[in-house]
Design a protein that fits this description.
The chain has 348 residues and is α+β, with helices and mostly antiparallel strands. Helices cover 35% and strands 24% of the residues. Helix 8 crosses helix 9.
């Protein structure tokens, strides 16, 4: 028989334990996105380009918001939101993917369901219009978590996903960036000087860009989902794979803590298990989302020499958009509000 004083203590501890996993109140949702981080300076951005980025991010947010507002799932919202950015040449994912050393486009993506920690990912795919959609197929319709290259594309065919001509992904801006990267590698002057005001310019310094798109959503049922999609690094070689398709590095979601989507120098994000580390710090240390994100992105990563950022939200709808670079394309929307977008470091 447990003495009364100890019985009261146990009751309090049990109450705390259950409250830790209590979901957000019904009929509340939130969505946060990113479109890459790096040296984004206003001096390198024309009014037209800034407007284009903000418009596309707002479109992505509204797409996901429509799903969440109508009672749709966080997974559906994440997938649809990311597809808007995958279909835009503004971002390094899907249509705007950067070129590899060999002159192709190799894309990675992952998605995770915070309800049961189920996840799916693809790496080095070259003929898939929406890598995030294929990642979800892997999660829901295979026994695996990560498929790569030709195997992932073979699996896509079994799911009725058409393979497209790789030329769909090629853009002149990305070709010029590859040519300049190859010239620099050889110690030569840039073959193509891209003026900051030209239609081919990139507001993010190509040498300090970590282009990726991602989204994290909380639906009305209290479920969290996260997803990330990327074209990787310009001039990457040897089928290099970064953090984006690595569950726990570039993407993570757990209803008990938070959801995270990352963008940055992938090698560092893999080594630091960035996405999982943020959620784990919340769950095991009992700290806030903002505190956890700062500890990983602003402290641990900085000490390692890693650059980039994350977007995240917790089970209560709190949002953190944390980065250690000069800027990050980012934005969010909550229940009953209009989408808000940000680009530069000093925007609040």
């Amino acid at each position: 028989m447990i003495p009364k004083p100890f019985g009261k203590i146990i009751a309090v501890l049990l109450a705390f334990s259950f409250s830790h996993t209590t979901a957000i109140a019904a009929d509340t949702y939130a969505l946060v996105i990113h479109g890459g981080a790096g040296t984004i300076l206003k001096a390198n951005m024309t009014t037209e380009k800034e407007g284009a980025y903000r418009t596309k991010m707002a479109e992505a947010l509204k797409t996901g918001q429509a799903i969440l507002a109508s009672g749709g799932s966080a997974l559906d919202a994440v997938e649809a939101t990311i597809q808007v950015m995958e279909n835009s040449p503004l971002f390094n994912a899907g249509k705007g993917a950067v070129f590899t050393h060999e002159g192709g486009n190799e894309m990675d993506a992952s998605i995770m369901d915070g309800r049961d920690l189920n996840a799916g990912a693809v790496a080095s795919v070259m003929r898939i219009k929406s890598p995030i959609a294929l990642a979800r197929e892997v999660m829901e319709n295979s026994k695996h978590v990560l498929l790569s290259g030709g195997g992932a594309e073979e699996f896509a065919a079994t799911r009725g996903i058409a393979l497209i001509d790789p030329e769909y992904f090629a853009t002149e801006k990305r070709r010029l960036q590859l040519q300049n990267a190859l010239a620099k590698e050889k110690g030569e002057a840039p073959i193509n000087e891209i003026k900051k005001t030209s239609r081919y310019s990139d507001p993010i310094d190509p040498e300090n860009k970590f282009g990726t798109v991602g989204a994290v959503a909380l639906d009305k049922a209290g479920n969290i989902a996260a997803g990330t999609s990327t074209g990787g690094m310009t001039n990457k070689r040897w089928k290099r794979i970064g953090d984006t398709p690595i569950i726990g590095a570039g993407t993570y979601a757990d209803n008990n803590s938070c959801g995270v989507s990352a963008t940055g120098h992938g090698e560092f994000f893999i080594r630091a298990a960035v996405a999982y580390s943020i959620c784990a710090r919340m769950e095991f240390q009992g700290i806030s989302l903002e505190e956890a994100a700062d500890a990983v992105v602003m402290q641990k990563l900085v000490k390692m020499g890693g650059e980039g950022g994350i977007v995240s939200l917790d089970k209560n709808g709190n949002i953190a958009m944390t980065f250690n670079t000069e800027g990050m394309y980012r934005g969010y929307v909550k229940d009953g509000t209009e989408p808000v977008t940000f680009i530069y470091k000093d925007e609040k």
